[in-house]
């Protein structure tokens, strides 16, 4: 219990710090979001409308910084992240919600597949070290060293242009509208296969190498030697003793990967013209849409915190020594 209480306090403090930084972020930038919006729409906004916009975005000059901070927390707790200037003053929550499922669906599934395949192959390569299984390391590492945009372009040239197996861009066919039908789901899978495949191939090497190295280290531990001396089946020794302990450091990396899923893979979304959060963040930055940038930063930060909390819980369950050392 003390372990979980300490972790909870740490993450609550981290979340408060992230939200506070998110509050001060637009105030540290030159000018403010409302001034940028007025400059973009010169002559179309009256002084009264500008004052109303500043009040709406918590930038009222008649309020002190502390009052603005309290107002920001009130809006945040009510689920209001402000209005997006580049999206016609649409609520930031709606704008992010429209892009979030595409990123989570594609990058999330690809990351999980990459982790499962890479960890499994790494465990096998470590268990059979010195055999032909070691050939997996240079092969997967080679693809990890290839720049992602180059790998994506090669995939498009070969699988989309030459063979015509998959579409080269977008999340679904042009002219189609998102709906819950088998035809539309098939379009999404067809368009998402190529970018998902490139994500898996490019990230596989890290998982394989990390798990393989940990397996080599764990195989020299006394508890593995004792398990083998007892005559336990090799598969049971591999799964219950060696792999279970070797996978622990992988969980921390996996948690960070899950957290960054929400941030999207910007290069992938640009190469494949995919409508995800990464592309949305780039568009918001180019348009100087501070409220949307602020909302995306907050969502990404909190998601990474949640992913780390889940990793800590899983780590504590799998390795009781963690709970004892923290206590």
UniProtKB/TrEMBL annotation:
PANTHER family: OLIGOPEPTIDE TRANSPORT SYSTEM PERMEASE PROTEIN. It is a multi-pass membrane protein. GO terms for biological process: transmembrane transport. PROSITE patterns: ABC_TM1 (PS50928). Signal peptide: none annotated. It holds the Pfam family BPD_transp_1. It comes from Mycetocola tolaasinivorans. One of its GO terms (cellular component) is plasma membrane. Residues 100-311 form the ABC transmembrane type-1 domain. The chain crosses the membrane at residues 9-29, 102-127, 148-168, 188-209, 254-275, 295-318. This is ABC transporter permease. It comes from the Bacteria. Belongs to the binding-protein-dependent transport system permease family. Keywords: Membrane, Transmembrane, Transmembrane helix, Transport. Its main location: membrane. The keyword Cell inner membrane does not apply. It is found in: Cell membrane; Membrane.
């Amino acid at each position: 219990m003390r372990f979980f209480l300490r972790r909870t306090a740490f993450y609550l403090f981290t979340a408060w710090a992230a939200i506070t930084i998110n509050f001060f972020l637009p105030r540290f930038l030159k000018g403010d979001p409302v001034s940028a919006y007025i400059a973009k729409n010169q002559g179309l906004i009256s002084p009264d409308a500008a004052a109303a916009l500043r009040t709406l975005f918590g930038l009222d000059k008649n309020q002190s910084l502390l009052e603005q901070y309290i107002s920001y927390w009130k809006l945040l707790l009510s689920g209001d992240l402000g209005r997006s200037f580049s999206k016609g003053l649409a609520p930031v929550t709606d704008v992010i919600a429209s892009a979030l499922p595409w990123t989570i669906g594609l990058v999330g599934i690809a990351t999980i597949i990459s982790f499962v395949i890479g960890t499994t192959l790494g465990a096998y390569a470590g268990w059979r070290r010195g055999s032909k299984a070691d050939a997996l390391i240079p092969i997967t590492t080679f693809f990890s060293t290839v720049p992602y945009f180059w790998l994506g372009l090669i995939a498009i040239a070969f699988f989309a242009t030459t063979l015509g197996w998959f579409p080269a861009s977008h999340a679904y066919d042009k002219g189609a509208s998102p709906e819950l039908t088998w035809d539309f789901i098939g379009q999404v899978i067809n368009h998402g296969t190529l970018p998902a495949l490139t994500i898996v191939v490019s990230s596989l090497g890290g998982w394989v190498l990390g798990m393989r190295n940990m397996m080599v280290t764990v195989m020299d531990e006394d508890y593995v030697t004792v398990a083998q001396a007892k005559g336990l089946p090799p598969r049971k020794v591999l799964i219950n003793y060696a792999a279970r302990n070797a996978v622990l450091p992988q969980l921390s990396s996996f948690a960070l990967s899950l957290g960054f899923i929400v941030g999207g893979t910007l290069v992938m979304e640009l190469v494949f013209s995919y409508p995800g959060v990464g592309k949305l963040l780039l568009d918001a930055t180019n348009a100087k849409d501070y409220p949307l940038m602020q909302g995306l930063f907050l969502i990404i930060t909190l998601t990474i915190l949640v992913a780390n909390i889940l990793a800590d819980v899983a780590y504590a369950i799998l390795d009781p020594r963690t709970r004892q050392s923290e206590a």
